[in-house]
């Protein structure tokens, strides 16, 4: 049975959304197309009508995940105009975010996987990382410049690293110490 163009596009968006979550939870190679499509409520055959390859889907799902993360950062920052960086630090470097596998930070969840993928996936991540850096630059200063670009890079690196380390240790106290230490250092870097 043929589906309309509108339904086909809705199905495509559903697959991208599902892949965005499942890839963050399982990695690009940790979920097969059959299971991914089944979770999206579609058949595996429908995949090939909508995507050139799994790599194509990985790039599009990465873009979607990074856009979602960007929206979370923006929403957190606008929640407190007096200290816009505070809410970003608060949610990003939290135990709750550490436990969010399918909706958490795609840079943490998929960064090492993306490094082993092709140009399209890396391009999605590069664009998303640049967007995150732009947000951080705006949050730490009204004026843009090389000093703020390097601070934004240090902050993003510290936050991503701390969240990653907190996810790979078993001891909850040790995990929280990474998050707390990073939060304090991020504030120091931003205030410098």
UniProtKB/TrEMBL annotation:
Residues 9-69 form the HTH tetR-type domain. This is Transcriptional regulator, TetR family. Keywords: DNA-binding, Transcription, Transcription regulation. The keyword DNA-binding applies. PANTHER family: TRANSCRIPTIONAL REGULATORY PROTEIN (PTHR47506). Residues 32-51 bind DNA. GO terms for molecular function: DNA binding.
